[in-house]
Amino acid sequence: MLAAVVDVEIAALLRRAPSKDEALLALAARRELEDRMRRHRWLAMETARKAGATWAEIAGAAGMDAPAARRLYEQTLAHQKAYGYAEGHRADPGVPEL
User: Fold this and answer.
1) Less CB within 10 Å around the terminal CB: N or C of the chain?
2) Contacts of 53 (CB under 8 A, 6+ apart)
């Protein structure tokens, strides 16, 4: 998937026009990569919290404010629990913040 994106980028750098099929494949691959990254962002947040990061630090890395980052994590975790993808006891592993 990533190869399809990279191939088109390299072609552009080499001033070689990709075929229509290559361009469409790269576009679909980008969409898939973006979707996967967005779906798994909460796991990266959780990993950062386990490592001792504050919500302000996570927010800075994620390009949002701290309340929005925390809300995104908590809402996503709640959905994961509701659909059985996360254990019911799972919670923010970081140090409690006010």
Assistant:
1) C
2) 61, 94
* Rg (alpha carbons) of the chain, rounded to whole number: 18
How far is the C-alpha of 74 from the C-alpha of 87, rounded, in Å?
14
- Residues 73, 43 contacting (CB under 8 angstroms): no
pLDDT digits (tens, 9 = 90+) for 41-70: 999 999 999 999 999 999 999 999 999 999
Cα separations (Å) of 25 from 28, 34, 35, 39, 50? 5, 14, 15, 21, 37
Q: What's the rounded Cα separation, in Å, for the pair 51 and 63?
A: 19
Over 90: is that where the pLDDT of 33 sits?
Answer: no
Q: Give the pTM.
A: 0.69
